[in-house]
Amino acid sequence: MSIPFVDLKTQYSLIKGDVSDALDRVFDHGQFVMGPEIEELEGRLADFVGSKFALCCSSGTDALVLPLLAKNLSKNDAVITTPFTFFATAEAIVLAGATPVFSDVDPMSFNLDPDLLEITIQETLNTGGLRPAGIVAVDLFGNPADFEKINDIAEKYGLFVIEDAAQSFGAVYRNKKAGNLADIAATSFFPAKPLGCYGDGGAVFTNDQELFGALKSLRVHGQSLEGDKYENIKIGLNARMDTIQAAILLQKLSIYQEEFERRNYIAQKYTDCLNECVELQFIQNDSRSAWAQFTILSDKRDDIQLSLTNHGIPTAIYYKKPLHLSPALFDLGYEEGNLVNSELLSNKVISLPMHAYLEDETVEWIASLVCDVVKNS
Ligand SMILES: *Cc1c(COP(=O)(O)O)cnc(C)c1O
Q1: Strands (E), 214-368
Q2: What's the Rg (C-alpha) of the chain?
Q3: How confident is the model at residue 128, as a pLDDT?
Q4: Nearest residue to 221 (alpha-carbon basis) of 203, 208, 209, 234
Q5: Is there a contact between 182 and 151 (Cβ–Cβ < 8 Å)?
Q6: How far apart are CA 322 and CA 300, in angstroms?
Q7: Which of 190, 200, 249, 342 to probe ligand 1 with, by most ligand atoms within 8 A of CB?
Q8: Distance between CA atoms of residues 336 and 328, nearest Å
Q9: Residue range 195-201: mean pLDDT, rounded
Q10: Distance (Å, rounded) from C-alpha 156 to C-alpha 154?
């Protein structure tokens, strides 16, 4: 039997009946677009995260694009973000018409380093041309970024902050939930994320009623929300979540907290078995990661990957190339050596199987294989 990197089959076997019933209800009422499950899920998500408003949308990428569009940005607006993340983080900034400016990560937490962030803002101001407008901070692999410091810096320079919580649904930072750590947050329900649907989906969170109104309009072609819905007040998107996905997420959300606890248990087990032989991502004492990935650092990363592959254990390298070196962002003018911490991480990271249904013995076995490689090669 092979080990899945993320085990959606075992999860499905547990909720199969509830999912079927939920889907039957959607097929019966027939409101496939913006059916009642959407608003129900928005309420449940906002409650879970502790934010005033949640807006379901078509993907995690659109959950970033929508609030960025609401900010009316132009090419001269710099949105500062991390280069050590999934491509969509920077892509959304470009799609919304602004210019991404990368600031390096802390090599321990893998998240934006607040001290470097402030230096990047000052450098951007001093260089002229670009005007710092906002920050997109990512909770990488589920580990909340240091939002107290990031929000303080943002306030000092008058910038908005968006939390890219695509990987951190359920995570905790100083008694607050990920998704409620900044002005605005975006999450993804891509199937392999901590809370996934059975297709694409995402959500935006905010406490700002006016912004929530703007997001609702942008989600449906910038339509007017009062009066005539065929009156368009802005260029928007078709970024609605399918009712079917909301129905599925409502079922998955019911078992989410249990899964979250189990992921944390597994992460602790990995940590106990591995911290002698490899470096691990640092999680602050008052944070809890959602463990979208369990990622280790080793100079022998390629040997580890080969050995695990030979034993039928899947691994992944997130991320092989930091975004400032992405061909699609070549025009931004970055070169190798510009953001050394992100480049270093890209050369050393490897992510191990992580899901709520991993057995203790499997975790121990994977860890022992990793340590064997480190000691013997
Ligand atoms: C997955 C992900 C996204 C995009 O989410 P999609 O639902 O795939 O569009 C954005 N940012 C980060 C950090 C992600 O991991």
Answers
A1: 279-280, 287-288, 294-297, 349-352
A2: 21
A3: 82
A4: 234
A5: yes
A6: 19
A7: 190
A8: 15
A9: 98
A10: 5
